[in-house]
What we know:
The protein has 118 residues and is mainly β. It is built from no helices and 12 strands. Strands 2, 4, 5, 6, 10, 11 and 12 form a 7-stranded mixed β-sheet that branches. Strands 1, 3, 7, 8 and 9 form a 5-stranded antiparallel β-sheet that branches. It is globular and about 40 Å long.
Amino acid sequence: VQLQASGGGLVQPGGSLRLSCAASGFAFSSHWIHWLRQAPGSPFEWLSEVSGDGTTASYADSVKGRFTIPRDNAKNTVYLQMSDLKPDDTARYYCARDCNRLGYCAHWGQGTLVTVSS
């Protein structure tokens, strides 16, 4: 199982950013994929999940209405579309598989850093 997050960077408050999670090594369309983040000095925070067929998604209250989690099974990729970003969104973002909402996952990708600052 391989998961690789990318697309992080520096963005101003109120801005938007799209993260990508490229997957390989497993039957991608059969698995839910999750996004989590970890801010400096903080525990992992579960953010969102999407079903294998992309029809069902859930979000943490902290990002609901601002983030979406589309997926493209033809490209083995899940995205995290982030808008109205706030400084509190600054964190390293990870995609993962087989997670619970406490932030424990069986398979993790390398994270990508998002910094929201003016």
